[in-house]
């Protein structure tokens, strides 16, 4: 049972960190790892695969650590790196961090990622707030008759709060694909037609799992490339890491400000 495994992970984190409860969680995806230090120095940090049922991330740019950081009045559980669906381990490892966050006492989770943009006007380095999602993976982390509402999956309250702090933040619809290949130009044309503004290989399944355990979700995408066919250039993972490095301090401060305001 995923809930049982999450409870085991949460109990281990609580025992080893000495922090009984964490009220907010953050998942830092590729491009965002360098933002971690701007959240403040951790009171506790371990390798993610030393916590029950976590697997170490395989992508470069994902550092595979869990931190506990005090920010404002909050106890924040920070996951540096995530497990992706394209690792073919199934949806449970992909959503274990989200469920562990809920089992640790979190009421809110901030899911970050790097994404390709379907909007040419969004420059590389732009942080976009996710307003809604399209799950193109064909997968769900939920089993059985669990009819979870996905209306307002991305918390209107948290989105309003970010708009107040950073009024220039654009919003868009995030489409998750399985990957690991990037899209063909024809696939990007299809995604634009069905209403996507951003495309990536994470987050949507995590948001589904988060809503199933009543976590408030804030989603933030760092635009690191224009989607396939928009510039005519081939896509390259190194540009993802470079855009993250270049934006790290700005993104980290933005995250810390948002957390303080929650
Ligand atoms: I960063 O253009 C990043 N991740 N599928 N397509 C997909 N995933 C991505 C992309 C992209 N950019």
Describe this structure as you would to a colleague.
The structure is a single chain. This protein has helices spanning 2-17, 91-103, 156-165, 185-193, 204-212, 237-261, and strands at 24-28, 44-47, 65-71, 74-80, 108-117, 127-135, 171-176, 198-200, 216-226. Helix 1 packs across helix 2 (91-103) and helix 2 (91-103) crosses helix 5 (204-212). With 262 residues, it is of the alpha/beta class. The structure holds 8-iodo-guanine (8IG). The site of 8-iodo-guanine has 15 residues, from strand 5, strand 8 and strand 9.
Keywords:
31% helix, single chain, five-stranded mixed barrel, 6 helices, 262 residues, binds 8-iodo-guanine, alpha/beta
Present the secondary structure layout.
Layout: H1 2-17, E1 24-28, E2 44-47, E3 65-71, E4 74-80, H2 91-103, E5 108-117, E6 127-135, H3 156-165, E7 171-176, H4 185-193, E8 198-200, H5 204-212, E9 216-226, H6 237-261
Parallel strand pairs: 1-4, 1-5, 5-9, 6-7, 7-8
Antiparallel strand pairs: 2-3, 3-4, 5-8, 6-9
Describe, in short, the structure shown:
With 262 residues, this protein is an alpha/beta fold. It is built from six helices and nine strands, in the order αββββαββαβαβαβα. The longest helix is centred in the C-terminal third of the chain and has 25 residues.
What Rg do the Cα atoms give? 17 Å
How do the strands of the widest beta sheet line up side by side? 5-8-7-6-9
Number of strands: 9
Strand content: 15-25%
Pairing-aware structural class of the strands and helices? alpha/beta
Runs in which pLDDT lies below 50 for 5 or more consecutive residues are none
Name the hetero compounds present.
8-iodo-guanine
Overall geometry:
globular
Q: What order do the SSEs take from the amino end to the carboxyl end, as H and E? A: HEEEEHEEHEHEHEH
Helix content: 25-40%
Strand count, sense and barrel status of the largest sheet are: 5 strands, mixed, barrel
